[in-house]
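Input record (one chain):
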Amino acid sequence: MISKNNNIYDEKYEFNGINKPKKDLQYKLIKPKFSKEEKELLEELRNNLVDLAISSGENFQIDENALLNDISEWINRNTLSDDNKKVEKLANKLLGEIIGYGDIDPMIKDDNLEEIMIIGVNKPVFVYHREYGMMESNLTFSEDKEIISIIDSIARQINRRIDQESPILDGRLSDGSRVNATIPPISADGPSLTIRKFKKDPLTIIDLIRGNTVNSDLAAFLWLCVDGLGVKPANALISGGTSSGKTTTLNALAAFINPRERIITIEDTLELQIPHKHTVRMETKPPNIENKGELTMDDLVKNSLRQRPDRVIVGEVRGKEAITLFTALNTGHSGFGTLHSNNSRETITRLTNSPMNVPKIMISAIDFIIMQNRIYRSDGVSVRRVSEVDEIVGMEEGTIQLNKIFQWNGKTDEIENVSVSSNTLQSIADIKGIKTTELHNEISRRKSVLEFLAKNNIRSIHGLGKVIENYYLNPYTVLDSISDFS
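The corresponding structure, as predicted from the sequence alone:
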């Protein structure tokens, strides 16, 4: 929980808020206090739970209600307390410590945080706040073992290990948050932990419009192209740097897919939340302790093609799965993906060189490269912007040709349509047997729907999904409803 005026209390953790010193904002965290007797109970409970987890093997799962009852009975036996309310309060307090993530648990529960970063002992834990940007917290760890205890707890929960032989931990928490941890000798200054938070309420295209990541013109254009009027759905790569919002934009655009289509998503860590009933989510699997059982992105892309997908969405394209994906796109499948790159030309260079090695002749299977950047303002807070949208229009003398459709203007902070024409729209019009002017009229209609939703803050993933589904069923009913409401 975050507060600017320091007056919001959390019953379990007392208070989490923001203090504003003279120079910088600080994320203030007040931890629950334990008496000496309570600390001894907590340590004994943890040891018993670890023993139970080890004896149960990989299938060990915690039943929170049963564990809460066990803790209450444990307190009664060890303290001889007859105050039921006091026992219940202490049991809940201990439960939060046992099944949570120690001192950083309230940070993980704070949906306003985007990232949590532990960089070593006697150094502040840093957080990245969605509104205030990078901040120091008042939390520090005085010993390596305190950080390692949290890392070990995470490792046990996700059935992974981290030790001298495997000093890197990469995975996801039960809520979907991505976690990366290192211990010496990999991290020379001691153990480190980075958690990229999974937003419980995912951002949608309406959020991106309201936040100026895209505008309604671009969003409506992409909606039409993603749909392709059912005859030519566009394929796209979303490129950008680390934490530029690629996956968020991918997720937002995937909501435009017709609900009748079958979607298969392939990710290293499950992040996409697509409001479609017919979605199959697949996740890569690292090798086990014996270095067996690994399932790579390429394995899953190949397998997806045997599952009759209408759309294949790859969370991040970075290796030999690129050839498999582009082969699928060149043989009639449709798909999306993200890729680390700084501009459209670099995206093509990365695709056509090692380790991806996609033949240049296959690149034309992609209709668009959507570039997204993370831009830092003078106050230190970053914003995400789609900086350009380029069409791939063919190859000339061995060079892939690009046609810029939209471009972000840094001076005005506006996304401008800079195209004379669009090959993608022309292709849809030719296959459909209509004029491109009719497509532009349809884009205008879809733009009015998106602007209505943005104006009225109808932005939840399910609310937006329902409107899009109804639009595909009967667009004029939706348009009439908007007109009547206005």
